[in-house]
Structure formats: structure tokens, C-alpha cells
């Protein structure tokens, strides 16, 4: 779109020319109405340049630069011929505005248009030709210009464009279906990866727990060995002393009698805590078995859930025994953990039997 009115230079030219027209004193009523029309159109072009640029493109192409040049010419006097010529140009722009607008012209513009229609014969010859061209031929020229414009050509090619659009639509639909299929496949893959990572994380958690329990088992085993030594060493020490002093046993008899009770007490206490640690050792081993079972389950549970759901649709009891075996806990039958009072009671019985 060519812009001619909405520029600083054009606005300045329009404003100056409007003031020049204001100071004119016409000789007759025709001159007054003609000057009023010129001032009305020029003032509107100055105040609403976007409207005139948008709706008067044809006359802008034809006489736009010439019109601004006529208004800016300071050397020529504003004679009747020149004013008539400028008025005819204003009328051409006004008439195109009238033809291009959806709504009717404002009352003052409509009055100006009717003034020109009713007084064509009073204009100078060149201006009269311009006005007659605008009234008679310009609408046809405007229609011809519009009919041959790119927009109308696009409308003429509507069928071919519609066919192309239909082809594009089919291609897009095909692409959408293909992409949707790919997205669904990716979704399934991501779902499998997500489940896989979930079970990997669960397996890792059980593995970390198994390491902790293994360390706990090793510590308990170490203290079991220590307590085993504590159970044997006091008795072994007594036997060594007796063996070395077998020839003089009467001399150490009193010492042996005095030391036997602490020795046996220490052995009994060591045996008691040995039993406690042994129970804990078996418990930790049982827990390790349970953890290993769950680690094993993590390796096949994903596919098993899919397989079992399909099988159970046909026979709900077909996998019942299998699940009872696989998912049941591993039970170890350990003895009851001896309480502290049990150990004290055993030591008391030992002392009583020795006294008797």
C-alpha cells in the first residue's frame, strides 16, 4: 500500500494550503462553496490520513504525487483555474472514498459531493473534464483495477486453491496420524523405561539394605567367635593349671575351689550371650534371604504382572499356587530368644548345686 497523506511532509503541505484557502475572499457563491469543499477535504486528509491512504489507493496511484505537488506550489497564484483544478482532484479523492466506504459519507461530505454534481458546468474546462471522468468513467476504472488485482485473481483461482488445500489437508492428516503413531510408540517405550527404572531403583534399595545386613551379619559372627573363645578359655585355663600342678594338687586345691565359681559364671554368661548372638545371627540370615527373594522378584515382576493379568482372565486360579510359593515369606524356625532372667536363673542353680 502506497502512503501519501500519512507523512510529515504531506501534513505540512496540507496545513499550509488550508490556511491559504482560509484567507481567500471569493467573488461569488460558487467560489465560496468550492473553497469550502477544498478546505473540508484537505482538513480531513490532514486529520485522518490513514483513512484516505487506505480507501483512495487508486487515485493515489494516479494523481497522488501530482496533488501534493499542486498544493505545495508557492509560485503560482490561486486563480480560479487553479482552484477549480485542485477542487476536481479533491472531488476525485472524495468520490473514491465514497465508493470504497461501507457506510455513507458524513453530511458535510455528501453536501460537497452534491455541490460538484450540480455545478459541473461552472468549473473550468480541465477541471470539468476531471469531474466528468470521475463521475462517468472512474467507477468503471476502479472496478477494472479491483477486478484485475491480486486479491480477485486469488478468488478466481479458488477452485485450484481449494484443491491444493484439500491435498494439504490430507497430507497433514497423514502426517498427524504418523506422528501420533510415533508418539504412542514413544509413550509405550517411555512407560516401559519408567517401570524398568522404578524396579531398578527398588532393586538398588534392597541391594543397599542387603549390604547393611551383610555387615551386621559379619559383626555378629565376629562376636560369636569372641564369645566362643570366652566360653572355652576359662575352663581351658583351669585344666592347664591342674595339669601343671598335678603333683602338688593339694597345695592349689583351695585356689581352684575359689576360682571355679567365677570361671563357671563367666562361662555361663558367655554361653548366654552366645545364644543371644546366635539367635540374632540366624535372624539376620533370614532377613538376607527375604531381601534376596525381593531382589529376585524385582527382576521379573513387571512382565509377570502383564502375563498374570492375561492368564487370570481365562482361569483365575491357575497361578494361585505359584503365587503362594513365590510371594510367601521365608520362615526360619529359630529357638526363642533367652531372656536375661533365664541366664541369671541358670547361674543361681549352678551355685546352689555346688554348695550342696
Automatic annotation (TrEMBL):
<keyword id="KW-1133">Transmembrane helix</keyword>
<feature type="transmembrane region" description="Helical">
    <location>
        <begin position="255"/>
        <end position="278"/>
    </location>
</feature>
<keyword id="KW-0175">Coiled coil</keyword>
<feature type="coiled-coil region">
    <location>
        <begin position="162"/>
        <end position="196"/>
    </location>
</feature>
<feature type="transmembrane region" description="Helical">
    <location>
        <begin position="220"/>
        <end position="243"/>
    </location>
</feature>
<keyword id="KW-0812">Transmembrane</keyword>
<protein>
    <submittedName>
        <fullName>Uncharacterized protein</fullName>
    </submittedName>
</protein>
<keyword id="KW-0472">Membrane</keyword>
